[in-house]
């Protein structure tokens, strides 16, 4: 998909020419939105020690850009002065992979991760079934035995390929020192070659309004609230971007507590800053650990709405995050992950049985197919993932009480309902502003809408 040119979208090349042609004019072009293509960030800049100015250019204190100042933006960033967002289709540009090894590694690495979420539960269940089958049911016993052997062999083969082929290759390619990835330094640990490869594989980009461009959020903790989950929210796995672009605070994403108890995967998630999706943990992170928090608001429920023609946010009853934000006194930023619902083919039973047990167990039990029809495989590469951030929703002042323990007496249900409505409106505004930039300007796009369900 090749974006068409327009006077409202600027790149580094066009900025120079426009600057010279209007040198006699004192008028300014106000930037409304920024677009950062994470997939195009040079590999040598993907390091924790690199100054953010080398990522996004020089910050503008007035959040305005004239033709001269825009020239400080790097090549992987573009801006627009249009209140309607970027050009038709420009946000869904799938970039070619310059290094085919990135493609191969992600096909193996993502599949390994997906199957690794299942086997710790599936193999014990299959072993129990195998033990319960009587000797008279030899055929069934053999089928279960072969299935266990296949799962072990399948996951083991993927692990060996990833560990002994791809890990050495990419540690050398990116010049990463994996010894720095320790649990006591989650911000450094977020710079993993696997996540770097995912940003390239998914052609990942971020879009945000000038109202949150640096230095607006540099001195405040925030909650990044994102929908839809889809099967897997690949828009968040550019973890370093969330911890660097808008302010320098670590962004700790939340997840189902059960995931943090999984072998290997749980340790990996903890090392990059994940916390349990529980009120106390989120509030402590915001108020005691001085970090930002990211949450996929629709969670597991969001996986079961990916087959809808319209986009669906299962968040009508998700008001707990509002109370946390009000109590912590931090803004919420609504974020929409375009492409999340198009990366996999998900099969949902019509009776809602899988959805019911998935919610009870806090893990997805729905079958899905990715690229090449690969069961539990890598996502498709015919769509890009673009996360669009919205206007911050600031809480009312809670300065009337200095005791956090008393803040529950101040926060009323009416306040929670009011700010929850503001959050819903924020999601809708983000979606409506950027849907043409992502889906293209067609009749179907004009009718495509974001709806909210329980």
Automatic annotation (TrEMBL):
Keywords: Acyltransferase, Endoplasmic reticulum, Glycerol metabolism, Lipid biosynthesis, Lipid metabolism, Membrane, Transferase, Transmembrane, Transmembrane helix. InterPro entries: DAGAT. It comes from the Eukaryota. It is a multi-pass membrane protein. It is an enzyme of class 2 (transferase). Its EC number is 2.3.1.-. One of its GO terms (biological process) is triglyceride biosynthetic process. The keyword Transit peptide does not apply. It is found in: Endoplasmic reticulum membrane. Belongs to the diacylglycerol acyltransferase family. This is Acyltransferase.
